[in-house]
Amino acid sequence: MQAVQYPVIVNGITSPRRERADAARNRVKILTAAAGIVATHGVEGLSMAEVATAAGVGVGTLYRRFGDRSGLAYALIDEREREFQAAFIEGPPPLGPGAEATARIRAFLHALTDRTVEQLDLLLMAETAAPLARFGGAYDGYHAHLSMLIAQARPGADAYVLADALLAPLAAPLLAHRLRGRGVTAERVKAGLDDLLAAFTT
Amino acid sequence: MQAVQYPVIVNGITSPRRERADAARNRVKILTAAAGIVATHGVEGLSMAEVATAAGVGVGTLYRRFGDRSGLAYALIDEREREFQAAFIEGPPPLGPGAEATARIRAFLHALTDRTVEQLDLLLMAETAAPLARFGGAYDGYHAHLSMLIAQARPGADAYVLADALLAPLAAPLLAHRLRGRGVTAERVKAGLDDLLAAFTT
DNA sequence: AACATAAACCGGAACTGATTCCGTTTGCAA
DNA sequence: TTGCAAACGGAATCAGTTCCGGTTTATGTT
What are the tens digits of pLDDT across the range B113-152? Predict the structure, then answer.
């Protein structure tokens, strides 16, 4: 996955080069079409060719813009993703700053659980389109955040590895497998994570 | 994945129907050819068409026998898998029965880590060939075993969910991502799991 | 204000690899 | 010997991804 990256706008000044008008127009068309397909046919209907056709665009354009299937899926949940990131980075406690590290860890894992369950279909597709797709998107952000909190809550521990370990149970494939049909619910998953966190709390 | 299942042989008596001679011959040819390809070209070279050609068999046969790419990969690691299962089910403690539940949990997770790292390439392929492939193979065995131990070590806890949570960090994609290039080692992963287990030990 | 030009972008044909289908062949047991 | 379920092989299908010759656009120039 290596979608086109555009310069970030800082203080109204854009670096190198701005996105071309036709490109911007197409991006909107593509995302709109894709969202429409998901809404009507579910994620199963979301094939690259379908999206391209529905958007009135060539598949090449689609790949240029989003890199691959996984990239397209992540783009579709981008908005909600930004909200979530904002919430744990600068939102109100206990998710955001201001609460104790332990409380924030707990709040973060609960919130991530909810968010994942909420968009399970798209996340499942995004994470499994390519073998390591999960570690290309928002994962690094979650990991950095959780690492920091763990380091605070538990000085001396291997925060880097522990963060992975706590994020792992929230991988879309596992949740999808357990939440469908079997009696496992989001609440049970959260409770289980709380149980694991006991090691930190005490 | 839904490879053909053959009757288990119990006390020399085979149930329903035995595998046909030509089928057995082909299975050996396929596995031999596949192992050869992996040895010479790595797992990347393991395409279904390649294997079929090398084995002198049609692709249809390959699918009839192993269900899909994932099934073929699991078949290739089956021997080692049986050893591992035997070790934690009836081998010497602390991995096998005879030790305390907490010790067995720890031993199990360490052993599983080693085993996974050892065959990381094939496991990565096996687990990511299809979105939920991981939960079709040996996973249920691990989960049942770990659930039992957790229930013993921690009566009242949600062993079912906790078992998933402890197995999740050992998913092939995560390990592959961390062990390649970044300073994470199998030992660090094990130490991290031990840290999580502190909640049980105390 | 029209123009020239290179960088970006476009579309869709072509390619790749997994999986399915189905007419044909084979092994086994009656 | 014969019947048929099981197995076979490989063509056909399907979806993701790559390629590349042909446009469009942003920008500097006249």
Answer: 999 999 999 999 999 999 999 997 799 999 999 999 999 9
CATH number (domain holding residue A162): 1.10.357
Positions 7-46 in A, CB within 7 angstroms of strand D: 17-18, 20-22, 46
Strand (E) or helix (H) holding A83: helix A78-90
Are B72 and B83 in a shared domain? no
First to last CA, chain A: 42
Q: What is the pLDDT of residue A47?
A: 95
The phi, psi pair for B9, rounded to 5°, reads -90, 120
Full DSSP string of A142-199:
HHHHHHHHHHHHSTTS-HHHHHHHHHGGG-HHHHHHHHSSSS--HHHHHHHHHHHHHH
Interatomic separation, CA of residue B71 and C1' of nucleotide C21, rounded (Å): 20
Same domain, A123 and A142: yes
Question: Which structural domain range is residue B184 located in?
Answer: 79-201
The answer to whether A165 contacts B192, with C-beta atoms less than 8 Å apart, is yes
| Nearest nucleotide (CA of B20 to C1') | C27
In angstroms, the separation between the Cα of residue B154 and the nearest Cα of chain A is 11
Instruction: Provide the pLDDT for residue B183.
Output: 82
Same domain, B85 and B177: yes
Same domain, B28 and B84: no
Residues A148, A168 within the same domain = yes
| A49 & A129 share domain | no
- Tell me the two tokens of residue A72: 């397209």
Looking at the structure, do residues A125 and A94 belong to the same domain, yes or no?
yes
Q: What is the mean pLDDT of residues B34-63?
A: 95
Residues 62-101 of B with CB under 7 A from strand D: 63-65
